[in-house]
Specification:
mainly alpha, transmembrane, transmembrane helix, 5 helices, flat, Holin, membrane, 123 residues
């Protein structure tokens, strides 16, 4: 069973799913720092909100990593598809949050919104 799981992890590595996790981690870092800058600029910075944000990000990452063994027990390639949906969906939400922080900073995000709208249209 353990050998099969390790083979599955090697298989996942070939799908590029871990690259999405890396991009997601980078997006989380950008989101945290852009949120801190936005809160500082709008004078709404709060240690409670910041700590809650960090805890939410850690819990989200743990939850997303929890689904790797779940994907292993699902039949065929259903588990890999599930991971892609969860990871890309969460990445999408992180990007939306970053754009919201940029908007709070007064940065024009129209070009980003057009880009995201174009991606939505192509689906």
């Amino acid at each position: 069973m353990y050998q099969e799981f390790w083979r599955f992890l090697l298989y996942l590595n070939g799908t590029g799913i871990f690259n999405v996790v890396a991009v997601l981690a980078i997006a989380m870092i950008f989101d945290f720092f852009s949120g801190m800058v936005a809160a500082t600029q709008t004078k709404s910075i709060s240690s409670r909100i910041g700590i809650n944000g960090i805890i939410r990000k850690l819990a989200s990452m743990l939850l997303l990593l929890f689904f790797v063994p779940v994907a292993f027990i699902l039949p065929a390639k259903t588990g890999v598809a599930m991971l892609w949906v969860f990871y890309v969906g969460y990445l999408w939400l992180e990007i939306e949050s970053i754009l919201e922080n940029y908007r709070k900073l007064g940065i024009d995000i129209a070009i980003f919104k057009k880009f995201l709208a174009e991606i939505r249209k192509r689906k």
